[in-house]
Structures are given as structure tokens and as C-alpha cells.
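It would be a great kindness if you could assist me with a short task in structural biology. The full record is reproduced below for your convenience:
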Amino acid sequence: MGREAVAVCHWQGEVAEAKLHLDGAALQLRGDLRLDIPRGHIKDVTLVDEGVRVATDGPELVMEFGAAEAVRWQKALLKKPPTLAEKLGISADNPAFIQGAFEDVPLEEALTGATVQTVSDATLLIAILMEETDLHAASDLALAHPEKHIWMVHRKGKAAIVGDTVIRAHMRGLGFIDSKTSAVSDQLTTTRYRLRAK
């Protein structure tokens, strides 16, 4: 997901071609020049010649890739990325029912004012998967409420007792399809599932 391009980049006296990737979290450069600039560190983006100048908390970055592409990148870089609550589709008007416990500040902030205590009052479901038993409890919840999407939240990488591959195989085996994925925090990620229509 996100915007990608290849550009000639100028950074701290270096000039090199790099592959660019922009998502909600950061602008990443890969290739001869490797750099990650968090979205929050981008202060301004201006058009220059055939590219854009990105003002940050530190040095400036200039990316050259043609006038038309520069306009698109300026717009994308200046656009405020969606909040986690917006990515999950939750709000006071679209509340979620939470199953499971967690300790994660970004998730806690996203859920503030956007949860309910009963499934019937919820627009969607969020299941926290920290142990193997949590996966079965989550799929039971989803099967009991097939009209609602369920977000399966779990740890990233090697720290995950219940990982993405296991969750996907289990849910697809029950007839669910996954439709969206989102990073939650440095520790957690999530994928949305819904029972496939017959």
C-alpha cells in the first residue's frame, strides 16, 4: 500500500537514485541512498524545478522525477495520513466491541470513545490475539455475528504466538475472507475478516 516511484535524490551532499515508498507512517528511500523520514518529521513540501524539496526537522531532501509527478508527490506528502481509528473504521458513531486484553498506547488511543460493552450495539468487532486459545474465541465470536467485520489484532513478527499465517489459514478454513490490513503500532498489526457471502 502507499505511493511508490524512483527518483534522483539529494540528501546531505549525496546524490543517488532511490526507490521511494510513502505510506501513512513514513517516507522511505531504498537503493544507494537509504533513509526513513517519519511523516511527523515532514515540515513542508515545495515544488522545485523537476521535483520536490522536503523540509524536515533536520536536513532537507530533494527528489527529482519530473514536474507532473512532483505535483502528485507534493500533494501526497502534504496530505494528513489517516488516524488508526479512521483506518479501523471506528468512531463514536461506529463503535467496536473488543474481545481480549491488550497493553498498547496507540490502540488504546484509537479506541477511546469508540467502544461498546455489548456486541449488539457494535458496528464491528475487534479481537486481541495473544494466545492460541484467543484465535478460537475470536472465530467463534465472528461466526456468531456474521454480519459484522472482525479485526484480528496480533503481535508482529517473531514475537507473535499467533501470527498472520496461522490466523489467515484458520479464518479462511471457516469461510472468512480478509479484506484489509493495517499496522496498529510498533508491536501490533491487524487484518479485517468477514464471512464470505454464499
Q: What stands out?
A: The chain has a mean pLDDT of 93. DSSP finds five helices and 13 strands in the chain. The CA atoms of residues 51 and 64 lie 4 Å apart. Helices lie at 67-78, 84-88, 105-111, 132-144, 164-173.
